[in-house]
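re: the backbone from monday

yeah here it is again, tokenized this time
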């Protein structure tokens, strides 16, 4: 019984000592992007908390004034700073190598017409 237990423990321990191959660059970039987005999310949460605390203090002070009670001087705190919209820090999307994508300008006409190539180029069909 003890021998089978030792053999079983050895079999289970072998995968624990195996090393994994290094992560591909895409996985590293994705992890970095996720960390940056998480940090931005924490900044947004802190900003929203700051705004809600300011609203709570304003409501409290207003209620005390309306009740005719003395309102203590507020403590000086730094203003709430908006982190702004999320800006991706990751790599940009690769451009198409074949150049088969649409042109960047807005289309003003349908891509095809009933006119012949000669009419489009301005020359006559009969020469």
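seq for it, each position gets an aa:
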């Amino acid at each position: 019984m003890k021998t089978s237990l030792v053999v079983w423990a050895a079999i289970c321990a072998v995968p624990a000592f195996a090393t994994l191959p290094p992560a591909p660059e895409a996985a590293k970039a994705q992890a970095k992007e996720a960390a940056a987005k998480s940090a931005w999310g924490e900044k947004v949460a802190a900003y929203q908390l700051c705004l809600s605390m300011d609203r709570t203090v304003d409501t409290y002070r207003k209620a005390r004034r309306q009740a005719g009670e003395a309102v203590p001087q507020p403590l000086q705190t730094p203003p709430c700073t908006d982190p702004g919209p999320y800006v991706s820090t990751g790599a940009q999307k690769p451009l198409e190598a074949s150049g088969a994508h649409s042109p960047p300008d807005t289309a003003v006409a349908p891509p095809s017409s009933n006119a012949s190539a000669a009419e489009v180029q301005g020359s006559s069909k009969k020469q």
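The radius of gyration is 33 Å. The mean pLDDT is 79.
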